TrEMBL record:
Region of interest (Disordered), residue spans: 298-335
Species assigned in the record: Gluconacetobacter azotocaptans
UniProt-annotated location(s): Cytoplasm
Catalytic activity line of the entry: cytidine(1402) in 16S rRNA + S-adenosyl-L-methionine = N(4)-methylcytidine(1402) in 16S rRNA + S-adenosyl-L-homocysteine + H(+)
InterPro entries membership: RsmH, SAM-dep_MeTrfase_MraW_recog, SAM-dependent_MTases_sf
Name of the protein in its database record: Ribosomal RNA small subunit methyltransferase H
Length: 335
């Protein structure tokens, strides 16, 4: 099958994602974070399958609709179905469209390259733009947060989501600055943060962690991950696979914990928590495809610096006795 080009976008760890997902003809997959469409294009090129794609960004939906047109058959149908919304609501979004059970789900967490590169989205402080940071087009912006949130709450999200040790100092500087004039641009917020957070040997901009914390809060990214992982595993058919690429420790920790729990690899139960003991004794419905996270190759990191922090994990729903006896030979996965 001819590969579909992916203009202006480099999907991270694409060969590893495809190898783990193992697309096959006649199957149904979900790309829960369409973004630039890199994984979607590759999946649709690898097999004559059906793909549902979710993204809350209207710009991503427009890119997907262009790909839909490329794939449109003479009878007007397409193997790609675009859905606007958050992947944390995938169950309801697909149920409304009578989508079938899924043979595989891929999630590429965090902000997309397109969003980082679009100045007007306000995700990056490398160029000056409006302080927005929303992945979609609804809800409070980052400017709303930094100009109205209480100092203690602001310090908490910067510490918890940005892992910034000087979060109280950052929050205090923001509150002092906004008393003089509203903080409306990425450059101004970055300058305020840099005034109280010194650089270090890592070479990472001092504003990076605080920007991450605010962005995660604006988009409820961790809440979306928890909900999305639960729903994705629930919607997988026997033998179906969930493949997740994360980009920082907060994301990866949630993915690791959810997958280990589903595969029965829970921590030793406490005698003070009988419920945990029962959960640990249940027969697992999943098996891990990765006992520890896979990392990108050195060559990929050189070619695409944004891949450097990527971690890849996967899990597979165990086949049931019924599915093993009824599955046709054509549905067998390649080794």
């Amino acid at each position: 099958m001819t590969a579909l080009p992916t203009p202006g976008h480099i999907p991270v760890m694409l060969p590893e994602v495809l190898d783990m997902l193992a697309p096959r003809d006649g199957a149904t997959y979900l790309d829960g974070t369409f973004g630039g469409g890199g994984y979607a294009r590759a999946i649709l090129s690898a097999a004559r399958c059906t793909l549902w794609a979710i993204d809350r960004d209207p710009a991503a939906i427009r890119r997907g609709e262009a790909l839909q047109a490329e794939l449109r058959a003479p009878d007007g149908t397409s193997r790609l179905h675009m859905v606007q919304g958050g992947f944390g609501e995938m169950r309801d979004l697909l149920a409304q469209r009578d989508a079938p059970m899924l043979d595989g789900v891929v999630l590429d967490l965090g902000v997309s390259s397109f969003q980082l590169d679009e100045v007007e989205r306000g995700f990056s402080f490398r160029t000056d733009g409006p302080l927005d940071m929303r992945m979609g087009d609804t809800g409070p912006t980052a400017a709303d947060i930094v100009n109205t949130m209480a100092e203690t709450d602001l310090a908490n999200i910067i510490y918890e989501y940005g892992e910034e040790r000087r979060s109280r100092r950052v929050a205090g500087a923001i509150v002092a600055a906004r008393a003089e004039a509203p903080i409306l641009t990425t450059f101004r917020l970055a300058e305020i943060i840099r005034s109280v957070v010194p650089g270090d040997r890592s070479g990472i901009d001092p504003a990076t962690r605080s920007f991450q914390g605010i962005r995660i809060h604006v988009n409820d990214e961790l809440g979306q991950i928890v909900s999305g992982l639960e729903q994705a595993m629930e919607m997988l058919s026997p033998g179906g696979r969930l493949v997740v690429v994360s980009f920082h420790s907060l994301e990866d920790r949630l993915v690791k914990r959810a997958m280990n729990r589903a595969a029965g690899r829970v921590p030793a139960p406490s005698r003070h928590d009988p419920g945990a003991m029962r959960a640990g004794q249940e027969v697992p419905e999943f098996r891990l495809l990765t006992t520890k996270a896979l990392r990108p190759t050195d060559a990929e990191c050189r070619a695409n610096p944004r891949a450097r922090s990527a971690r890849l994990r996967g899990i597979e729903r165990l086949p049931t006795a019924e599915s093993l006896t009824s599955a046709p030979l054509s549905t067998e996965r390649r080794p």
